[in-house]
Amino acid sequence: MAESTETVGQGLLLEPLHRVWPAQALQLAPLRREMLRWLEPLALSEDAEDDLVLAVNEAVSNCIEHAYRPATVGDTVDIRCWTEPHAVFVEIVDHGRWRTPTGEPTRRGRGIVMMQRLMASVEIHRDVGGTRVLLCHALPSAPRSRVAGAP
């Protein structure tokens, strides 16, 4: 369990978390539990915790489904979590290859929009090394506009 490193205003600065997870759908439930354990000292509302965990789950699901084709046993997703006085940050990184969407209509493809609605900000960077998603969730004491584009 993470321990607080310092108290700043109404927010806690938690010990950063870094985990490397196998890029497998079976790892999503343990990942959600790990996120909830790490977030616990922040005493966020249940809705805020759910929003954060859902956005992380969606980003990791995208890594599992889209980054590694064909999938191999060694495929991984790196998760880094940290707090700053005004926000919680989660970075999700895969080491796969971005594939341009086909443009064909599907009933899918709403994950990024969902993450953007749940978080104060979502930044996505793709390059030859994989895809990096940075999620930022404002802490209750911080206005949303203060964390836009953070850090």
TrEMBL record:
- Keyword line: ATP-binding, Kinase, Nucleotide-binding, Serine/threonine-protein kinase, Transferase
Query: PANTHER family, alphabetically?
Result: ANTI-SIGMA-F FACTOR RSBW, ANTI-SIGMA-F FACTOR RSBW-RELATED
InterPro entries xrefs: Anti-sigma-factor_SerPK (IPR050267), HATPase_C_sf (IPR036890), HATPase_dom (IPR003594)
Which named protein is this?
ATP-binding protein
- Name all Histidine kinase/HSP90-like ATPase domain ranges: 22-135
Pfam families from the xrefs?
HATPase_c_2
Q: Which organism is it from?
A: Pseudonocardia charpentierae
| EC numbers for this chain | 2.7.13.3
Instruction: Write the signal peptide boundaries.
Output: none
Query: What's a single GO MF annotation on this record?
Result: ATP binding
